[in-house]
Design a protein that fits this description.
The structure is a single chain. This protein is an alpha/beta fold. 52% of the residues lie in helices and 10% in strands. It is built from 19 helices and 11 strands. The strands form 2 sheets. Strands 2-1-3-4-5-6-11-9-10 form a 9-stranded mixed sheet, sandwiched between helices. Strands 7-8 form a two-stranded antiparallel ribbon. Strand 9 and strand 10 form a beta hairpin. Helix 14 (393-430) packs antiparallel against helix 16 (473-489), helix 15 packs antiparallel against helix 18 and helix 16 runs antiparallel to helix 18. The longest helix has 113 residues, at 522-634.
Length: 720
């Protein structure tokens, strides 16, 4: 069960000093403290309803109860707003009947902090008229002061006077036989008195003559409204009419007391609505001794309600008073230990924030990511094509182009495979993580940031946009064949050259035919023509050589263009391979640097977050130290002598910065109770003389806890 403690008291002395004592219950999820800073009571209640609704929305279906801390004291300025019953009405309207809270509490407790009572049976009504009227309103539902109530004391006395003036019962009148057996004169008197009292009561309780703004708790809620006054009048007339038929009550009957009883059923803390909803625990916060100063006292009942359901079940009545005695020596020792450990914790955490210890981080070795593989430089031999036309030249051309295409493809494939091997090798390097101590995170972070910027530029420079493109050699081959085939088939054959030379020789010899040498010897003739034929043949051979040279140059130019294209493509593949090697190398180094940089970045972020948490945690210590010092001042302890002996030893319980304050035992004073104190519950708690064992650590500080019937705030009817 979750217990919501809602503080509606804007000035409880030292209440903030008590919150650390309840941290264990908050840690167990049994307690939620709601202390709002709103100036007025309605706003405090409305804001508490919102917070309770939000908390319940985050939980599965669970039972819950509410404890409201309210005040009563001599500084009250308004009878209705400052009375306990007025505060109960606001709680009921603004909290318990709030439609935004889907589930209703299993029980609502009111702890009234009473700062004026000096005796448990006598209210200090002499403190102020407002306090007296509030107390009277709470206990009797009535206010004596005629300026503060809708019906005056004089009007009530007038009702009694109307009855006494009309109804006079003598000693010899028989009253036990009913109204009809009374003497006629007495019946007439009773009827006249009844009519007169009814008319007077109707006039007094007329909503039209009552200014309900005098009883406003808020702009929308009045302590007394028209419906309530009508209900009081209806109840009064019904009971007064029933009394007419019971003459045995005539002698001592008081219409004023009857009306007071009807009013008390609608007003005060003992109305049926309040008795059904609330249990009232009054805490008399006396002004003498340590009792008023020890801040844990008002929250002892809170701890019992939240942690001791079996004990609270013993509260059969609706109103109790709480009395507590403390073991002051043990409390002082616990607070002294508490303060010392808070001081040690604060110093230790501040040292951790200011120091910059080395950090062990997973890092990659900054290895050389160079890839040592190379490509073969073999190139297909160039094709040889002669001047004379022979069979197989076209086949040789096709075969040569196929070799070039296959070479380029294999070269490209070899490049890709070796690039993949480089990638795998670098991936292996990037997976070899080792844990290293980094002595200075900031310096190493700056160094890696510079390296990362440089390597990012190198990666961008060596990046290849058309990575993996393949040149279609066969399209290029077909383009060149359109030039190659005409030249190939325009060449002469061997026989054609032979006959061409013979014919050319003969034709060129004819101009040198000489008829004048017929008479010369045949030998001279043959020599002459041999010389002529040789010259002509030589000229033909020269022409053949020139033609062959021309054709050869033309073929070689074409073949050379093909060869140069193949070399260009091969060079591009090689250059791309080298650039990819550089790219992979730079990328590998960048990945290594980036991994190390990210690890340092995360470490610095964690350090920053840790320092923030440590700073916040260290900041919690001064607040709690101040609480401890204020408690020590209550006991007039020499703080200077105590703090001078503080030692920077390890605390018994080191706080965890990632946890809320209330989950860290170092901020809970009961953590440092003396070891000699009992660990189990004590038997010194009594609820109306019934012993109850309390197991909460707070109980170790109390020597006596008594819950007894409240003798001040108890149901009563006041007479004039």
């Amino acid at each position: 069960m979750v217990t919501f403690v809602i503080n509606l008291h804007s000035g409880i002395p030292n209440l903030a000093l008590a919150e650390p004592f309840l941290y264990p219950l908050e840690k167990e999820g049994k307690l939620q403290l709601i202390f709002q800073a709103a100036d007025n009571l309605p706003d405090r209640i409305a804001m508490a309803a919102v917070l309770v609704r939000r908390h319940l929305e985050r939980l599965a279906y669970t039972q819950w109860q509410a404890v409201f801390l309210v005040k009563t004291g001599g500084e009250q300025r308004h009878t209705y707003r400052d009375s306990i019953s007025g505060q109960l009405l606001l709680i009921r309207r603004l909290f318990l009947e709030n439609t935004s809270i889907n589930t209703k509490p299993s029980q609502a407790y009111i702890i009234a902090i009473d700062q004026v009572n000096e005796d448990e049976a006598i209210p200090a009504i002499q403190v102020s008229d407002v306090y007296r009227d509030s107390w009277e309103l709470d206990t009797a539902g009535f206010v004596r002061n005629e300026q503060r109530f809708f019906i005056t004391e004089a009007q009530l006395q007038n009702l009694d006077q109307l009855w006494r003036n009309q109804v006079k019962v003598s000693a010899d009148t028989i009253v036990n036989l009913g109204f009809q057996r009374l003497p006629f004169e007495l019946q007439e008197s009773v009827n006249k008195a009844t009519q007169a009292i009814a008319q007077a009561a109707e006039q007094y309780l007329d909503p039209q003559r009552i200014d309900f703004s005098h009883y406003a708790l808020t702009r929308q809620i009045n302590y007394i409204d028209a419906d309530m006054v009508r209900q009081i009048y209806q109840t009064f007339t019904q009971r007064f009419g029933a009394l007419k038929n019971d003459p045995t009550r005539y002698a001592n009957f008081s219409p004023a007391d009857l009306l007071r009883g009807c009013i008390s059923e609608r007003l005060g803390i003992f109305t049926p609505d309040n008795e059904q909803l609330y249990r009232l625990l009054r805490f008399p916060l006396h002004t003498r001794g340590y009792f008023s100063a020890i801040p844990t006292a008002p929250l002892y009942p809170v701890a019992m309600i939240a942690n001791q359901e079996d004990a609270i079940k013993q509260l059969a009545r609706k109103n109790y008073t709480v009395a507590i005695d403390f073991d002051n020596a043990e409390l002082q020792q616990a607070i002294r230990n508490y303060l010392e450990h808070l001081h040690n914790t604060e110093q230790r955490y501040q040292n951790r924030v200011n120091a910059s210890p080395s950090v062990s981080l997973p890092q990659l070795d900054n290895k050389d990511c160079s890839c040592n593989v190379t490509l073969e430089r073999s190139v297909p031999a160039p094709i040889e094509i002669g001047f004379l036309r022979t069979n197989g030249d076209l086949y040789a051309w096709d075969t040569w182009n196929q070799q070039i295409a296959r070479h380029l493809e294999e070269y490209s494939l070899q490049s890709r495979k070796k690039i993949e091997s480089c990638i795998q090798e670098n991936q292996t390097k990037q997976s070899q993580v080792v844990v290293r101590d980094i002595p200075n995170l900031d310096e190493r972070h700056s160094e890696l940031e510079r390296s990362k910027t440089t390597l990012q530029g190198a990666v961008a420079h060596s990046f290849i946009a058309n990575h993996g493109s393949v040149f279609n050699w066969y399209n290029f081959q077909r383009e060149k064949e359109e030039l190659f085939k005409p030249k190939l088939f325009s060449r002469p054959s061997r026989n054609e050259i032979t006959w061409l030379l013979v014919a050319l020789t003969l034709v060129m010899t004819l101009p040198f035919w000489n008829t004048y040498i017929y008479d010369i010897e045949i030998g001279y003739q043959l020599f002459y023509y041999a010389i002529i034929g040789f010259v002509m043949l030589s000229l033909g051979l020269i022409a053949f050589w020139l033609a062959k040279r021309y054709y050869h140059r033309s073929f070689m130019k074409l073949l050379l263009s093909v060869q140069e294209k193949a070399l260009l493509l091969r060079t591009q593949i090689y250059d791309d391979f080298e650039r990819r090697k550089d790219y992979i190398k730079s990328l590998c180094q960048l990945n290594i640097v980036r991994y190390n940089y990210e690890q340092l970045q995360n470490a610095r972020q964690r350090r920053t977050e840790t320092n923030v948490i440590l700073t916040i945690t260290a900041a919690n210590s001064p607040e709690h130290k101040d609480i401890a010092r204020q408690i020590m001042r209550i006991f007039n302890t020499d703080e200077q002598s105590m703090t001078a002996t503080m030692r920077l030893d390890e605390a018994t319980t080191d706080p965890k910065p990632e946890l809320p304050v209330y989950e860290n035992a170092v901020y809970t004073p009961t953590t440092f109770l003396s070891a000699k104190m009992p660990t189990e519950g004590i038997e010194n708690v009594r609820i109306e003389n019934i012993p109850i064992a309390i197991k909460h650590p707070l109980a170790k500080l109390a020597t006596r806890i008594v819950l007894d019937r409240d003798k001040i705030y108890q149901k009563k009817n006041l007479t004039a």
